[in-house]
């Protein structure tokens, strides 16, 4: 993907201003709602094509509708039961052709970090009836996301901690693994690829680091840029954790943003084992627009928005930390568009016995022709009478 260096330089300079921008309580009044309880919840992604979100609990998966209807998922003989109590983040497949590999990802399949030996990725079919190893990786896996833009070839992206650095793996639909970079700064949490509307960072992998508080943009060629360092708390189990991009239609049509709140005993932020949500109305009131990136902290689930155009700016959304212990991705639901106007019935008409063309012809030429014919008949009659008189 082509990068425009002046625009990227401007964005980097703006990132310095972001680092100085405080997220003040007076600038934002939105709060998270403790919405739906799920035992051991660690992540949420989607929605799938059926409208449900895929949710990771402790060694369990669930389908959760925007209406709060919960169903156990992948619990049959071939289902998912791995890594209880760990940060096994997941990613829902949007589908997408990996041209270089000659294959495509299947929509609604789920890919989950496998944190036991052999380290790697577990795949769960869209129906939940089949689960198994998809790819083996190395290091300590701590992030996963799909490239829905195509800048990384529509591959699955996975971050791994190794030797104080982060490795970014790209996995194609055949399970073949390549490294985008092996020298990224340490990071962890809910990754996301920026949409085309995100300024000079469009198409980059966006990755937060809770310890430093920095948010990184990782380009397809492996180049790493500090996109922002917002004025939020930093440190393990405290700093920036989840990111997600506000989808089209969210502000105008309405919806919710969702974040997993994991119960964590002994933490200053003990969590609640529930899915949190905040409405589009509250988010819009803070000044957020479609295409902006929401960023939430692990400790307290404070939220800011980052907008990148020619330069980047920060918007406080949920400024006051709570007791939540946020984990994984930020997901979104968007309300369906209102129905269009109801078609009105059209009255059936019986076609006329004489076509309109014939009527038009008669109206235009029929009457003059008839008059002319009568004149000719009359003149012909006079002529016959005159001839008869001469003959006598």
List keywords for this structure.
26 strands, alpha+beta, disordered N terminus, 34% strand, Neuraminidase, 4 helices, 2 domains, four-stranded antiparallel sheet, globular
On the 0-100 scale, what is the average pLDDT?
Answer: 86
CATH class of the largest domain: Mainly Beta
**Class based on secondary structure composition and strand pairing:** alpha+beta
| Biggest beta sheet summary | 4 strands, antiparallel
CATH architecture descriptor text of the largest domain:
6 Propeller
Q: Report the strand count.
A: 26
What's the gyration radius in Å? 33 Å
Number of helices: 4
- Oligomerization: single chain
> Going across the major beta sheet, what is the strand order?
1-22-21-26
The CATH topology of the largest domain is given as Neuraminidase
Count of separate structural domains: 2
What pattern of helices and strands is seen along the backbone? Answer: HEEEEEEEEEEEEEEEEEEEEHEEHEEEEH
The backbone outline, from C-alpha atoms, is: globular
CATH superfamily of the largest domain: TolB, C-terminal domain
- Estimate percent helicity: 10-25%
Our measurement of the CA-to-CA distance between the termini, rounded to an integer number of angstroms, reads 111 Å
How is this structure best summarized?
This protein has 392 residues and is α+β, with helices and mostly antiparallel strands. 16% of the residues lie in helices and 34% in strands. The longest helix has 36 residues, at 356-391.
Description:
By secondary structure, the chain is an alpha+beta fold. The protein folds into two domains: 5-334, Neuraminidase; 354-392. The protein is 16% helix and 34% strand. The protein contains four helices and 26 strands. The chain has helices at 5-20, 250-253, 280-285, 356-391; strands spanning 33-37, 43-45, 53-56, 61-64, 70-73, 90-92, 96-98, 103-105, 110-114, 120-124, 131-136, 140-146, 156-162, 165-171, 177-184, 192-193, 205-208, 215-218, 224-228, 240-245, 255-261, 274-279, 293-297, 303-308, 312-318, 326-334. Strands 1-22-21-26 form a four-stranded antiparallel beta sheet. Strands 2-3-4-5 form a four-stranded antiparallel beta sheet, with no helix packed on it. It has a four-stranded antiparallel beta sheet with strand order 6-9-10-11, with no helix packed on it. Strand 10 and strand 11 form a beta hairpin. The protein starts with a helix and ends with a helix. Mean pLDDT is 86; it is low at 1-7 and 9-28.
């Amino acid at each position: 993907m082509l990068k425009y260096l002046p625009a990227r330089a401007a964005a980097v300079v703006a990132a310095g201003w972001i680092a100085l921008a405080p997220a003040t309580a007076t600038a934002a009044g939105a709060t998270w709602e403790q919405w739906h309880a799920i035992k051991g919840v660690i992540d949420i992604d989607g929605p799938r094509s059926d409208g449900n979100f895929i949710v990771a609990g402790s060694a369990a998966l669930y389908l959760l509708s925007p209406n709060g209807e919960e169903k156990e998922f992948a619990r049959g003989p071939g289902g998912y039961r791995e890594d209880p109590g760990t940060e096994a983040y997941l990613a829902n497949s949007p589908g997408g052709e990996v041209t270089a590999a000659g294959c495509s990802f299947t929509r609604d399949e789920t890919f989950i970090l496998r944190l036991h030996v052999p380290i790697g990725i577990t795949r769960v079919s869209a129906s939940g009836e089949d689960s198994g190893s998809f790819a083996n990786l190395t290091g300590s896996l701590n992030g996963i996301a799909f490239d829905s833009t195509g800048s990384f070839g529509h591959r699955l992206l996975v971050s791994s901690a190794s030797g104080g650095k982060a490795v970014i793996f790209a996995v194609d639909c055949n399970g073949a693994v390549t490294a985008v970079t092996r020298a990224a700064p340490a990071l962890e949490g809910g990754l996301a690829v920026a949409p085309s509307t995100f300024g000079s960072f469009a198409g980059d992998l966006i990755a937060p680091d809770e310890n430093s508080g920095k948010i990184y943009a990782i380009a397809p060629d492996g180049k790493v840029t500090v996109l922002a360092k917002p004025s939020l708390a930093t440190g393990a189990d405290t700093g920036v954790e989840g990111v997600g991009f506000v989808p089209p239609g969210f502000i105008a049509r309405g919806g919710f943003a969702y974040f997993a709140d994991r119960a964590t005993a002994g933490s200053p932020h003990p969590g609640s084992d529930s899915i949190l949500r905040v409405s589009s109305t509250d988010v819009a009131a803070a000044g957020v627009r479609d295409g902006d990136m929401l960023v939430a902290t692990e400790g307290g689930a404070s939220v800011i928005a980052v907008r990148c155009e020619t330069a980047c700016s920060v918007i406080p959304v949920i400024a006051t930390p709570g007791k939540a212990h946020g984990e994984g991705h930020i997901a979104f639901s968007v309300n369906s568009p209102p129905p269009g106007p109801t078609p009105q019935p059209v009255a059936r008409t019986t076609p006329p016995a004489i076509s309109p063309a014939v009527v038009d012809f008669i109206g235009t030429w029929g009457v003059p022709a008839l008059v002319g014919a009568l004149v000719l008949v009359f003149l012909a009659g006079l002529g016959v009478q005159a001839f008869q008189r001469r003959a006598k």
